[in-house]
Amino acid sequence: MLRRRLFTPPSNGRCSVSRSSILKRVHDRKFNGRCFCGLDVTLLQPGTAMNPGRWFVRCPKWKTSDCSYFVWVDKTEGQWEGLRRPVSKRKMHEDVLEAEAEVKMLKKLGKIEAQVSKLRL
């Protein structure tokens, strides 16, 4: 799972909350950017085949506390307007990092190809 702390959401709106299990029951809850523990939620993106690229928020202490706060971000569409821009910015940032890594790799490849052609002469 790729863990990314990205955004503390605004303190208004409604959303659907789902328990952390394979079959999730959805409950309507008031969303205020904090989990049931009162902590700021963490925005994450799973690295699983079951939910590729699907963003969610949960309690930052989910492993050590009894807080079961979990929300799929797409369940809040239209209700959590402030999230769309940060997610888009994060995606753009990841795309830039990926492109920079590709350029760096291509430069290295060009140097290696130049060395190989010198050795052939």
From TrEMBL:
InterPro entries: Znf_GRF. GO terms for molecular function: zinc ion binding. Residues 35-76 form the GRF-type domain. The keyword Zinc applies. The keyword Zinc-finger applies. It comes from the Eukaryota. Pfam families: Zn_ribbon_GRF. Keywords: Metal-binding, Zinc, Zinc-finger. This is GRF-type domain-containing protein. It comes from Arachis hypogaea.
